[in-house]
Amino acid sequence: MVAALAFEPVGHGWLAPLAMAMLWIGATRSHWRAALLHGACFGFTFMGVLLWWLVDSIGAGAWALLVGTQSVAVVAAAAGIHAVSRLPAGPVWAGAVWVLVESTRSAWPLGGLPWGRLGITAIDMPWVTLLPYVGIPGTGFVVASAGFALGGLATRHRGSDFVVVAAVVASFAATVAPFVAPHEGTFRIAVVQGGVPGDGRDVAGSHRQVTANHVQQTEELAQRIAAGRTRAPDLIVWPENSTAVDPVRDRATRAVIDEAVSAVGIPTLIGGIFEGPDDATAYNRGIVWLPDGETGPAYTKTHPVPFGEYIPWRSVIGGWSSRFQLIPRDFLPGSGEGPLDVAGVKVADAICFDVAYDDVLPDQVRRGAQLVTVQTSNATFYGTYQPEQQFEITRARAVELGRSVAVASTNGISAIIDPSGRVLVRSAEGSGAVAIKDVPLVDAITPAVRFQTHQMLMLSSLAIGGLLWCAARNSRWRRVNVGLASYRQVER
Fold first, then answer.
1. Residue-by-residue DSSP string for 422-435
2. Which stretches within 402-451 are classed as H helix?
3. Could you count the other beta carbons within 10 Å of the beta carbon of residue 338?
4. Secondary structure of residue 181 in the 3-state scheme
5. Cα–chain-centroid distance for residue 62?
6. Distance separating alpha carbons of residues 163 and 167, to the nearest angstrom
7. Three-state SS at 333
8. pLDDT tens-digit readout, 397-454
9. For the chain, how are helix, strand and coil distributed in percent, rounded to 5?
10. pTM attached to this predicted model
11. In sequence order, what are the beta bridge partners of 368?
């Protein structure tokens, strides 16, 4: 429970190290079975509360399955923590184990779920300055190690020495100077939130109206620009599912988008569902729409949601649940697209859950992206606290990347965030709105992005090395004990 409260909607990040201290105390008990039991209780409570929004939006079955899968990962972490806790500076080894397990469950099975990563809780905490230097994984390592050190100190565990584990991981490294990158001019960006009729959840059932709402907001923006009430932006961003049909092939949808973009006279990033290579497939895509009716570069969602946007092993399990019939087509993943070139400015794009994965936006920043857009729907989760959690991840990503982020959502949360994670403007949920801000264009690459692969290799090696060291030590002690037992028998 304490770990979940460190995340939104409560968002008390200072509870994250306290939760890790509690995990350490339970996992380092004398017997490994107690550690596994504590890990199971910790994991189910943590993930159960964190992901409760699934019950309200998808159903209790999906919640139980996902919580159970994620809890197994926490049990594995508890076992690893128990193993390395007796090494010198045990909390540091344990911190690496925690991050290794976080990274594993964020990628597996079926693409994983990168929710509940400790580094995200740094937002609005003094140690948020770690994010541009060591990223979400490295910040999670520091938070976990500090928490484990606190737990070790509370129990006077012998593995928690090493100059009090470097003064509790250098007092959380809270004195790290903020990363400040020079900016290369500014870019004016607008995000459009059209709203969804009814209870705000049924985008597919009212998709024509959803598109019409975004058209209306864009045309009203055009009128304000023409009247001189606001300066024209350089780019307008519509959210994911602002059109739930292929806007290129569907004549009615193309006509109204052409009309809106022509009226405002500004390139607009449209989120839509595009036809796949056959009737059974589709793409979730953002595409730049130009005022002359032509289309520009596009980004395709890299991480479609299993059982939400595609059915794994459809030929085998497709008939197991009537709910699967609600997903008649499988969304195909993109393959390393982006950044998008908009009037000479490179824009990294992510669609919905993509923002939580480490391979989408950092890769585009390394390829030259100067700012970031996130197109999201989240209408399925309207009225739950899932949008707040995703927005927290987005803010952490902005700091890690050192880039401004513009978030466009169908009915909330839409916002513009600066490179320090500060929210410059945020729309109210449920209503239509347009947010406009000037944001800096940044070329500099943060150390977290530049050395992302090296850092993960180092942390993974540290975790695996610690576990192998423990295995070797245990094997050596078993041989010594067997030798002593044999010697005693001979003496007798």
1. -EEEEPPTTS-EEE
2. 447-450
3. 27
4. coil
5. 19
6. 6
7. coil
8. 999 999 999 999 999 899 999 999 999 999 988 888 999 999 999 999 999 999 999 9
9. 50, 15, 35
10. 0.93
11. none
